[in-house]
Amino acid sequence: MDAKRPQRCAKHGLLPCAVCRSAGGCSSAAPCRLLHQQNPQVPAILSQDDSKAARQIQLKPTSQTHTNDFHHIPQRRNALPPRRKNRIGPPTAMALRSRPNLLPNHQLIRPHLLWQRKQRPIQPSVAAFAGTVELTPDVFGYSYSSGGVRLRAAIAGHLNATFHLYASLEVEHVRVAAGATAVQCILAFALESPGETVLVPTPVYGRFELDFGNVMGVGVVYADTTPETCFLPDMVVEEFEAAVRKERERGVRVRAVMIVNPSNPLGRCYPRETLVAIMRFCGRYKIHLDSDEVYGLSEFRSSDEMPGFTSVLSIDPEGIIDPYLVHVEYGLAKDFASSGLRLGALVSRNAALHEAFSSVVRFHSPAGPSVAIAAAMFEDRVWHDAFIASSRRSIAGAYEFVTTMLREMGVGFVEANAGLFVYVDLSSWLPPPE
């Protein structure tokens, strides 16, 4: 039987193991393990001397569609749309290291080491507060799957106090799961069917494909927006329209639009007029609008020209969109630096959606101690206000530190005023594509 040709590393296009590592790559990543499982005759470690010759091997495409270390899981149609081709070429870190004269003291390679000397850590204050919360025996037993009345009421009260809502939220408008990822997985179950899609503007957080696709086989389709056009009402709607037409031409239904506000990775807030335009678009097509607002309080002042945060729940939907089509995600991972609590919330006035949510949330139930700690965090408004103020100062200081360094090196970036991001442009630092 003919020996199978080894597969190239999915990340770098090179042969695995030593060759990958020499390229600053993936070490013992899954493609490398797969290579040696399928090809016992291939050495587990390729020497540097072998690397040049190894790259010349002509590889045949494999017929296997998906391999998992544990068992085979066939891909669903549209579950994970192919990522756009990366035209950058070599890994960014390699390109930067190859031009050290452009890097004063190599600061761009590991800026976090410099920031450690200046930062004001905020997670210890969360830990200190959690230590004061009384955990009664009942929190260690089975509890309500969707978070219980106390936490849901605390979240509703928190959003009423901070998001400037057009109408107050009640406890029945909130459901809780084990993180925002769990909320998105449940939304895929409740709002879409396998093969249907969610429309998102770009650039965007890259893991939504997994959140919506891994279990339910729901695809993600990307509107062709840029860091500039995604915040402009006419242009973002124009690209949304084009994306919906394209999906219809291939027989696929777009069920929802998802935005992240403030944006991940741009660190900017959607202007109110843009949110209204997106809501009108969703109302016209009768599709759901899911607004991920987990960075809603992580706002800081960097420029008077950039709009502050506006929640879609602060906009009266009358005459714009059916309020049952508008949903918000919230949680503690970002604004409260507490991703380890694993808590995410769905906020919606759609009772049917909550019923569907409750039918499957038992697979994503939050932990009792996390629920107790989170409820106390939302209820103690003195601690809450002090923490959010401290967090904003810390984020603003980190932003100033990073952007000052980028300006000194002549690296372009998108100005931000929210979230934890600085979206940089390193294209001029890299060699031209091959």
TrEMBL record:
Keyword Ligase annotated: no
Top-level taxonomic group: Eukaryota
Lineage: Eukaryota, Fungi, Dikarya, Ascomycota, Pezizomycotina
Protein name: 1-aminocyclopropane-1-carboxylate synthase
Pfam families attached to this UniProt entry: Aminotran_1_2
UniProt-recorded Gene Ontology molecular function terms: pyridoxal phosphate binding; transaminase activity
Residue ranges constituting the Aminotransferase class I/classII large domain according to the UniProt record: 134-427
Keywords: Pyridoxal phosphate
Gene Ontology biological process terms in this record: amino acid metabolic process
